[in-house]
UniProtKB/TrEMBL annotation, chain A:
Keyword NAD belongs to the record: no
GO cellular component: cytoplasm; EKC/KEOPS complex; nucleus
Keywords, in A-Z order: Cytoplasm, Nucleus, tRNA processing
Assembly behavior: Component of the EKC/KEOPS complex composed of at least GON7, TP53RK, TPRKB, OSGEP and LAGE3; the whole complex dimerizes.
Keyword tRNA processing: yes
Protein name stated in the entry: L antigen family member 3
Organism: Anabas testudineus
Family note: Belongs to the CTAG/PCC1 family.
Function summary: Component of the EKC/KEOPS complex that is required for the formation of a threonylcarbamoyl group on adenosine at position 37 (t(6)A37) in tRNAs that read codons beginning with adenine. The complex is probably involved in the transfer of the threonylcarbamoyl moiety of threonylcarbamoyl-AMP (TC-AMP) to the N6 group of A37. LAGE3 functions as a dimerization module for the complex.
Pfam families from the UniProt entry: Pcc1
Major localization listed first in the record, in broad terms: cytoplasm
Automatic annotation (TrEMBL), chain B:
Protein name: N(6)-L-threonylcarbamoyladenine synthase
Spans traversing the lipid bilayer: none
The organism of origin for this protein: Anabas testudineus (Climbing perch)
Chief site of localization: cytoplasm
Top EC class of this enzyme: transferase
Length: 101, 335
């Protein structure tokens, strides 16, 4: 049916065009970067599909890489990540530095 | 001595409390209050929580007179609740747990209410009525689980009250339920509403639709007052709750009732439950708004019990969850 074709076409398009976005966040130390990584990593994206986000730490830099099917979905995820990141940074500023272990 | 700090923010309240072996050392809280006619949306609520959470944390430590080093465990609400506010609170809990080098513990919000109620009232093994804006359950403990005997099959009783308040533009300050309770005292005429008990379960969505529809008609032609509607709604939904609580008590042979959750501080509900308890020779336990309404100490208290029984949550397992049933938790701290 026409509906099926449209759907099929849409799916193909989604597979071809993927928007990638990356962000590097410098931290004062690798310890701080590792704390932020472990605070920000546990929660999955609220949306089931259409977006993936990968967090990694290298030295004292936290790197985030998104790939999304649509700019709209990407924007929502990036915005919410920035809100979360700034809250974690504020928390570290107010209640850090980390105790020595 | 074991000191636990608890972070709660699953709905429109953000609270952080500190408990040391059954003693509440501090329990500051803020409420996100929306204009009359409006509910609280997840993203706006999360923004509110982000704006105040660190101030509340500072207050909690200062009022308790403690330093981070004095704390043994960081507990936070894992769920159930609204996703965005839950994440906000979990982020801060995870971060401070790491900064301070303390173990983390994810707590079921409903279990928090039950354990706080037990702590404050000293009820030993009560049948629990848990009534709030998001939950309506009748619960009894058996074999290491808080088992749900009856619950709402659609919306929570508090949600029914909140949404009724929005329809007739009752203020959300300090809470719609409180204002309905005050107005209900002035009601004189009982408007008959649907009464929807289904076995051990209850339903509130039909009552809400009915009163939403009836309200404007009846108010505009002067058939009844807003106060009459508040009174009638309370009498109807509270009767339903008392009925299913009584039936659960009969099933369990229980002689104690504990009311927890935000709606639990409604004195009319407590009064009606008290009448039923008197008739059965049972004892009623309830707490006031400090501990009934969502707060941080309740998460600290459930966390204290869990931590003392050997539980902790690894950071990678510390994701929040919007759905988390009361009976999913294994109660490792009771016989």
């Amino acid at each position: 049916s026409i509906y099926f074709e449209r759907f099929h076409h849409f799916q193909e398009k989604m597979e071809i065009f993927v928007i990638v976005h990356s962000l590097d966040v410098p931290f004062p130390s690798s310890r701080d970067a590792a704390i932020a990584l472990r605070s920000l990593s546990p929660d999955r994206e609220p949306r089931k599909g259409g977006i993936s986000k990968e967090l990694t730490v290298s030295g004292s830099t936290l790197s985030v890489r998104w790939s999304a099917d649509e700019a709209r979905i990407l924007r929502v995820s990036v915005n919410s990540f920035l809100d979360h990141l700034s809250l974690v940074l504020e928390t570290m500023e107010m209640f850090g530095p980390p105790v020595s272990q | 001595m074991t000191v636990v700090i608890g972070f709660e923010g699953s709905a429109n309240k953000i609270g952080i409390g500190i408990i040391r072996d059954g003693e509440v050392l501090s329990n500051p809280r803020r409420t996100y209050i929306t204009p009359p006619g409006q509910g609280f949306m997840p993203s706006d609520t999360a923004r509110h929580h982000r704006a105040v959470i660190l101030t509340v944390l500072k207050e909690a430590l200062e009022q308790a007179g403690l330093k981070p080093a004095d704390i043994d465990c960081v507990a936070y609400t894992k769920g159930p609740g609204m996703g965005a506010p839950l994440v906000t609170v979990a982020l801060v809990a995870r971060t401070v747990a790491q900064l301070w080098g303390k173990p983390l513990l994810g707590v079921n919000h409903c279990i928090g209410h039950i354990e706080m109620g037990r702590l404050i009232t000293k009820a030993n093994n009560p049948t629990v009525l848990y009534v709030s804006g998001g939950n309506t359950q009748v619960i009894a403990y058996s074999e290491r689980r808080y088992r749900i005997f009856g619950e709402t099959i659609d919306i929570a009783v508090g949600n029914c009250l909140d949404r009724f308040a929005r329809v007739i533009k009752i203020s959300n300050d300090p809470s719609p339920g409180y204002n309905i309770e005050q107005m209900a005292k002035k009601g004189t005429h009982y408007v008959e509403l649907p009464y929807t008990v289904k076995g051990m379960d209850v339903s509130f969505s039909g009552i809400l639709s009915y009163i939403e529809e009836a309200a404007h008609k009846m108010l505009s032609c002067g058939q009844c007052t807003a106060e009459d509607l508040c009174f009638s709604l309370q009498e109807t939904v509270f009767s339903m709750l008392v009925e299913i609580t009584e039936r659960a008590m009969a099933h369990c042979g229980s002689q104690e009732v504990l009311i927890v959750g935000g709606v639990g501080c409604n004195l009319r509900l407590q009064e009606m439950m008290g009448v039923m308890c008197d008739e059965r020779g049972a004892k009623l336990f309830a707490t006031d708004e400090r501990f009934c309404i969502d707060n941080g100490a309740m998460i600290a208290q459930a966390g204290w019990e869990m931590f003392r029984s050997g539980q902790v949550t690894q950071l990678e397992d510390s994701w929040i969850t919007q759905r988390y049933r009361t009976d999913e938790v294994e109660v490792t701290w009771r016989d």
